[in-house]
Design a protein that fits this description.
Blueprint (H helix, E strand, L loop, with lengths): L1 E2 L7 E3 L9 E3 L5 E2 L2 E2 L6 E2 L4 E2 L3 E6 L2 E3 L5 E3 L6 E4 L7 E2 L1
Antiparallel strand pairs: 1-12, 2-11, 3-6, 4-5, 7-10, 8-9, 10-11
Protein name: PAAR motif-containing protein
Organism: Paracoccus sulfuroxidans
């Protein structure tokens, strides 16, 4: 089971080595612990977009992001992943 990612959780990028690279916005209005739940389409500090989530749960037609979800920079093709997910909710 994987933790659900929230706005504020960390992201690791293959081209931007920012020490505090985080999920900064989500198109989802659902909240957990006072923070928005991250879904496919959420954006990170370096501009990468979450492109992968759990097919077990979606909100508004978008898969929910979990620990390890893939991110992508559309302009360069560089990838990354979500490296922290602090929600109390877990998805198998």
């Amino acid at each position: 089971m994987k933790n659900v990612a929230l706005v504020g959780d960390r992201h690791e990028c293959s081209i931007h080595r920012l020490p505090d690279n985080r999920i900064i916005s989500s198109p989802c209005n659902s909240i957990s612990g006072g923070r928005q739940i991250a879904v496919v389409g959420s954006i990170t500090t370096c501009g990468a977009v979450i492109v992968e989530g759990s097919s077990q749960w979606n909100i508004g037609g978008r898969d929910v992001a979990v620990l390890g979800s893939k991110t992508l920079h559309a302009d360069s093709g560089a990838t990354g992943k979500i490296v922290t997910a602090t929600a109390d909710m877990k998805i198998s």
